[in-house]
Structure to design on (219 residues):
């Protein structure tokens, strides 16, 4: 798996990520969600440079013009619920893409809250056979949700290509996915890679609970 870490590049993505992390700015839920959408726009543009194109001819009011358009069939896949704004950002750019959704939530198996399990309950996806799957989820902590989401989607067809994108990843989660996806044809795009997880498997420094910051707390 190849990794693109946008924090190593001087781009506006870093500004959006800094606002997501900032305890004083992140309380504004609308801004938080919108910053994730904006990161989706910027990342999708970067991803678009790696895709295949074909030339078509379009008729303008004056003459014909040649333009290049996507030659790949894209499906954007995401994980409820925190994945939704990043999904929207990608879909704004790849507006003709198919859309796949899976629900995966993390729960604590023990009362100390250190042993995390992941439960998948719902899958809605088009046929993925031969398509390019762009799997987006803002937080990559242990890597378990991304792995299980991919496996769940693959029960509905085998994608030709896999691209993943997240806003903040933990180094351990990236290393975990590298073992799960050894092929260098697979790329993970990250807004930042943070050094560690705390005992509750939250990314440190991270930004807190992305789903709660977007939509409020849940039972
Ligand atoms: O890499 P992992 O250890 O699997 O953690 C990452 C997952 O955690 C978050 O979802 P969460 O379970 O908080 O659900 P939510 O979207 O409902 O808040 C996030 O959106 C990922 O799906
Ligand atoms: O740090 C983390 C880890 C998982 N999910 C989040 O929302 N934040
Ligand atoms: Mg959450």
């Amino acid at each position: 798996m190849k990794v693109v870490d946008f924090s190593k590049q001087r781009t506006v993505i870093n500004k959006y990520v800094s606002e997501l992390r900032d305890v004083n700015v992140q309380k504004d839920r609308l801004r938080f969600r919108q910053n994730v959408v904006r990161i989706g726009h910027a990342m999708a543009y970067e991803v678009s440079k790696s895709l295949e194109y074909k030339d078509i001819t379009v008729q303008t009011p004056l003459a014909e013009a040649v333009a290049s358009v996507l030659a790949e069939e894209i499906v954007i896949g995401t994980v409820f619920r925190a994945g939704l704004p990043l999904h929207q950002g990608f879909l704004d750019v790849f507006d003709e893409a198919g859309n796949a959704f899976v629900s995966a939530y993390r729960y604590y198996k023990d009362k100390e809250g250190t042993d995390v399990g992941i439960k998948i309950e719902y899958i809605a996806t088009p046929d993925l056979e031969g398509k390019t799957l762009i799997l987006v989820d803002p937080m990559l902590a242990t890597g378990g949700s991304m792995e299980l989401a991919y496996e769940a989607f693959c029960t509905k067809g085998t994608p030709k290509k896999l691209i993943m994108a997240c806003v903040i990843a933990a180094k351990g989660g990236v290393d975990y996915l590298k073992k799960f996806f050894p092929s260098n044809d697979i790329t993970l795009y990250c807004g930042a890679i943070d050094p560690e997880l705390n005992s509750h498997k939250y990314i440190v420094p991270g930004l807190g609970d992305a789903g709660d910051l977007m939509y409020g707390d849940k039972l």
Observations:
- The chain has one domain: 2-215.
- The domain at 2-215 is CATH 3.40.50.2020 (Rossmann fold).
